[in-house]
Design brief:
By secondary structure, the chain is of the alpha+beta class. It is built from 14 helices and 23 strands.
Amino acid sequence: MSMSRPVWRKWTAGGGALVALGILFVGLTVLSSQLLRGVQLDLTEHHMYTLTPGTRHILRSIQEPLNLYYFYSERAASRLPVVRVYGQRVREFLQEIASRSGGKVQVHVIDPQPFSEDEDRATEFGVRAVPVDSSGTSLYLGLAGTNSTDGRAVIDFLDPAKEPFLEYDVAKLLVELTQPKKPVIGWLSSLPMSGGFDPATEQPHSPWLVYSQARQLFTVRNLSSSITQIDPDIDVLVIVHPKDLPAPALYAIDQYAMRGGRLLVFVDPIAEQDTPANGPGAAPRASSLEPLLSSWGVSFDPNEVLGDLQQGLTIRVRENEPPQRHLAIIGFGPRSLDPNDVITSGLTQITVETAGILRQKKDAGVRFEPLIQSSSQAAPIPAQRLAQLTDPAALRQGFQPSGERYTVAARVTGTVKTAYPNGPPAGVAVGAGAAPLAASSKPLNLIVVADADMLADMLWVRWDSFLGQRTASAWANNGDFVWNALDNLAGSSDLISVRGRASFLRPFERVDSLRAAAEDRFLAEQKQLEAELAQTEQKLNALQADRPDQNPGARAPSETILTADQERELQRFQKERLRIRKELRDVKLGLDRGIQRLGARLKLIDIVVAPAVFALLAGLVAALARRRRSAASSTEAAAPADGAVPAAGAASEAAAAR
């Protein structure tokens, strides 16, 4: 009789193994939480949860404790799916900031309830409440920060539309808390931007708005063309319409760039705001910053002006004449502005006048990133054609778009060499202890724009009078572009390196393409309807003029007599209009049917196809496993144990023995 192992011992052994596995799992979990604290694996497409090296360096450089207060109305955001998802994204990002700061940054999440102390605190910080509905419900979605010396910085509202720049905005707030001093801007301009006497009108004029606003945001230090060196405490150097700069000034700018300076440069082939005392046309109005631009890898030809057939603005040259399209006065829309750069993101229009073209020099060794580009319906125009232009329509003669997109503003970064490899130019004295630099000791940060007129008020702002005060109303984003550029360049090198990220929200690209295609068809049909309507009205007017004259006194002037031809034409138009309206309805129905078919296919794949494929694969794996186990058990049954005698052989041997 064979002895078998008791069943209860098997169950005890199995239970003990499960308990041991549970204890091992808990132990490994606790051990990993201690040893792998802060270790993450970011598998998102654009590494949404991975901080850039610039942000990590900013966090490492924090020397004092900082407190971040995240005001987020969770109940109000629950009504807005996009805001709810973005609010959670901000919370997770701030928690990542805190975990990477080594305890220097503390994040406090506050849900300000109505009429509470938290709401008063949000108001005190300057966090803005956005109304959600007509019932008075408000949404708080802002960030405030404090340092150890009662310094404050605030983002009054974290706009979900600016989500790609969330990391930049938070990093900028941290820099403001650690560096509360206003940046110093050196301003070198040959245009009267700071106000003064206008020789053309013989009247004093106010400072340009872009300049006066910069004085409020930064510490602006005016520089003259007679400079021989640029102070090292200048954070950003602004150069507007450089013209006939002497050699000492050019060399001073060159050495400032070699020291890793940040520059915002505006050059112009025809600066319309450059009005000499002798009147327009008395002297050349082109900028020149050579040989510096060439040494920085930028090519600018003052003899060509950009013309854009698609984005040229319609202007009125004279009061008694109709407006005309001017190819050289261009309004760059969102498609011409880089959405991935913090300077141009969110802007809707930049207006320029007789702008030039920027190109990257071959083998320059710098990174050339266009910020503003023309449409594909653009081409260069010789500058002499605009010198004495009186009729904008003349620019259309012989204008042939090249199909190329031309750059008007660009960001240039990288290591560059001096424009004076043989030493300072003649007449320039080098100060004691200031050895000339042949190459940049730090990477150059340059933003160059091929137009200086865009800074003038007339191209982006409208002035009104209210209660005796002059008020400005911006109709373009020229000023925002300049202030964003200064704000970006004045930050640390780490902050400049933080660029826009991809959006956390994933668009329905296929649905959007279907809708766009249907809308294009709809617009085409609509234009066809309008064209046929205009033609029919012209035909009716012609028929009415050709009909036999009748006694005007016999009937009221408002009555209209339709001839047989007119009746037939009118009926034909009505039938044609009904036909086109039916086609428009079919287009709209086609749009809905296309999106519905796409949705049905996705549901079929998600609900039926994917589970069926998974079940089939699982069945195949299980069948293969059973086959392997069956083959293994058959092999074991066929092979006897070592030293054993088969039963049949044993029986025959016993019979022979008897």
